[in-house]
Amino acid sequence: MSTPAPGHVPTLHLTEPTVLVTFSGPDRSGVSTRVFSALDAHDVEVIDVEQLVVRGRLVLSVLVTVPDEVPGFETDLASVGADLGLEVEVVHGNGDNRPRRIGRAQVVILGAPLMPDALAALTEGINDLGGNIDRIVRMARYPVTAIRMEVSGAAPDALQSELAAIGHRFGTDVAVQEHGILRHAQRLVVMDVDSTLIQGEVIEMLAAHAGCEEAVAHVTERAMRGELDFAESLHERVAQLRGVPASALDEVYRNLEFTPGARTMIRTLKRLGYRFALVSGGFTQIIERLADDLGIDYFAANDLEVQDGALTGRVLGRVVDRAGKAEALRLFAEQAGINVRNTVAIGDGANDLDMLAAAGLGIAFNAKPLVRDQAQTSVNVPYLDAIVYLMGITREEVEAADAADAPPAT
């Protein structure tokens, strides 16, 4: 085939005839080379290519212009297929080279396990909204199954609303993001701390030292459900900590347990230039140390007053409440030079709702029903690193990066 002159621009029109050639069967080395070499002998232009390999089974589709001599073209391709043990399908048509429809979105589905009835309902929901599934790719197979679908023809907002409701019925998490250039922009991840980054509530751990853990836990639960004003509930709970030795803060910090996958998520996204912030209704004496330990860029929390080596039962300054969390997200985005549309917020309680709504992507993580129902996206698997699949990162990529950074064996 002759090489196009420099600056050559194909003149193919959307309605001109094209040929779709599909090879399917057992994968083996050199298939692509044989196929393109065969096509090259017939003076055609390649318009589109897609290839998928699942469990050693290959599907390779190539869309090309119509060759000058069709019978010989089909004979040569059939011969390649026979040599490689592949089935060959040749389909002639018009308009196959149109760009994908508007309204493109990335739909990520998480399940543990992921069941066929859930996928049947979700794909039906996409179809009912006028969407077409252009591509399906597995993001992870453990500890959760994560599948990404690229969908065109349906509004992302409508997809999120409808698919989240369907996913909830089947115990499956669904996240929808617009499939645009902003997905690749540098992002800021803003996280709640208690029951999100870490397991449990710091204030309840401190209350155990004052012998009032049960009473404080009851107030915390009501606040997280949105039944109490957060600032008032915080003052009420902190008042019960009066007289607790300040050394209890050190003990609580030593006994903190991270949510499974927390370090993996942070490590993975920081490799890609993501910034991180902790925005907590908890306490600076704990949050500042967490930020230092994890390499977090920004944090906001409440200051417990300490006098003569003991907690006074008071909070200093303005409380970081529901509105304060959203304000902190906007402030940190400004300081990082990152558009608010490129922020991700993760939280579980009612006081996180404004922050989740302000972010470009708000994720309710193992959240209370009130929060789960109002958030853009809900993740209910117990692994914080499942968040990376929503960012388009696969489990294999995470493991490969960790392996590359591992110190050499001695």
UniProtKB/TrEMBL annotation:
Its EC number is 3.1.3.3. The keyword Magnesium applies. Its cofactor is Mg(2+). The lineage of its organism: Bacteria, Bacillati, Actinomycetota, Actinomycetes, Propionibacteriales. Pathway: Amino-acid biosynthesis; L-serine biosynthesis; L-serine from 3-phospho-D-glycerate: step 3/3. This is phosphoserine phosphatase. Belongs to the HAD-like hydrolase superfamily. SerB family. Keywords: Amino-acid biosynthesis, Hydrolase, Magnesium, Metal-binding, Serine biosynthesis.
